[in-house]
């Protein structure tokens, strides 16, 4: 592999973290409050555990053949036909994830910042801005993730300002409704941690592959810290009944913050948050483009770039309401549970058994 395309450990960590931190930051406190009450922060920790286990499974089967891409590994262990079928499934997953996050982003921008601008115009501007990143490849995308992380690091810190009026008694007593609501809340947090599966894209480019496991742990833990900080901030500022009434509690938490020279801070907050959205959308779209090239064995094929105008056309044809976006999110979560969590674990078990069986057959022949 060309060393120019290699990515550093920090780029690897923050690229995975950037995919994980998408729209969940804005809605997770409310959805958890409805499902698990103020014990929802425990669901976040359990979701982190599930994501870490699935993420380590991804690293495990990718590390079997460090110089190969994800598609090559699928074909190696499942055959050419079945391997391509699985690859198509992952392309669908990445496409659906990118479109879901993008549609939610467009809805937020139109509702809060640009109410009179058509969504397809916003989508076209986003795709034009992101095009150089797609052309630059994984190396440029990973560098962009590092830039966005440090450029938007002040956003979670802003949410600490309203805590001077917080009531920590709102989250007490702990486990007041038992473990069952908390376990139900894990399905919400599991979606929030999705993005770790994009290690299949970034791992082959990681310079020091021995640090891949540590990188996955750090990336997931960064996401855990941000989710906990934002969720607990909302839980102690809003009452347990009040928080369930907000669609976007994180943005509502920003509204009381006032400066003599600035009003409507939530608009500024969301404007910067567009960069955070982009670190999730761009890797998914690039994964689709790169996978289509590999699938049809056309390294210099330009047709996959039709994915970009195709997404703009979709945003023009489908102008979804909030209720329709909620339905889309449910389907997105269902697909991601299968591809993001179930597939890596099952494929890891399959590769482990397959490797052990082949090793046993080889020893029998040599013996």
TrEMBL record:
Compartmental location: Membrane
Name the Pfam families for this protein: Spore_permease
Its GO CC terms are: membrane
**Superkingdom, natural source:** Bacteria
Look up and give the membrane topology term: Multi-pass membrane protein
Set out the biological process GO terms recorded for this chain's protein: spore germination
**Annotated Gene3D superfamilies:** Amino acid/polyamine transporter I (1.20.1740.10)
Transmembrane regions: none
Q: What is its main location?
A: membrane
State the similarity comment. Answer: Belongs to the amino acid-polyamine-organocation (APC) superfamily. Spore germination protein (SGP) (TC 2.A.3.9) family.
The record's PANTHER family line, in alphabetical order, gives: SPORE GERMINATION PROTEIN A2 (PTHR34975:SF2)
- The name on file for this protein is Spore germination protein YndE
Question: What gene does the UniProt entry assign to this protein?
Answer: yndE_4
């Amino acid at each position: 592999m060309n060393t120019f395309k290699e990515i550093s450990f920090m780029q690897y960590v923050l690229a995975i973290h950037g995919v994980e931190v998408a729209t969940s930051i804005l809605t997770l406190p409310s959805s958890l409050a409805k499902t698990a009450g103020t014990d929802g922060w425990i669901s976040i920790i359990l979701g982190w555990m599930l994501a870490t286990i699935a993420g380590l499974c991804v690293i495990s089967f990718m590390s079997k053949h460090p110089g190969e891409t994800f598609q090559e590994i699928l074909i190696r262990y499942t055959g050419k036909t079945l391997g391509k079928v699985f690859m198509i499934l992952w392309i669908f997953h990445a496409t659906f994830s990118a479109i879901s996050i993008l549609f939610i982003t467009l809805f937020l921008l139109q509702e809060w910042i640009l109410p009179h601008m058509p969504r397809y115009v916003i989508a076209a501007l986003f795709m034009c801005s992101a095009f150089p990143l797609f052309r630059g490849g994984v190396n440029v995308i990973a560098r962009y993730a590092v830039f966005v992380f440090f450029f938007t690091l002040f956003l979670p810190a802003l949410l600490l300002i309203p805590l001077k009026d917080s009531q920590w008694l709102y989250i007490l007593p702990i486990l007041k409704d038992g473990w069952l609501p908390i376990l139900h809340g894990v399905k919400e947090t599991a979606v929030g941690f999705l993005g770790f599966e994009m290690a299949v894209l970034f791992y082959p480019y990681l310079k020091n592959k021995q640090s891949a496991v540590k990188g996955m742990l750090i990336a997931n833990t960064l996401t855990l810290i941000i989710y906990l900080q934002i969720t607990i901030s909302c839980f102690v500022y809003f009452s347990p009944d009040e928080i369930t009434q907000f669609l976007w509690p994180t943005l509502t938490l920003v509204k009381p913050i006032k400066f003599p020279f600035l009003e409507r801070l939530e608009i500024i907050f969301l404007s910067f948050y567009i960069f955070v959205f982009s670190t999730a959308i761009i890797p998914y779209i690039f994964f689709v483009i790169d996978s289509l090239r590999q699938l049809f064995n056309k390294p210099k094929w330009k047709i996959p770039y039709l994915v970009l105008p195709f997404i703009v056309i979709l945003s023009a044809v489908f102008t979804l309401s909030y209720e329709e976006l909620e339905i889309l999110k449910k389907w997105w979560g269902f697909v991601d549970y299968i591809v993001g969590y179930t597939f890596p674990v099952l494929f890891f078990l399959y590769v482990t058994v397959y490797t052990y069986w082949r090793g046993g057959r080889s020893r029998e022949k040599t013996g």
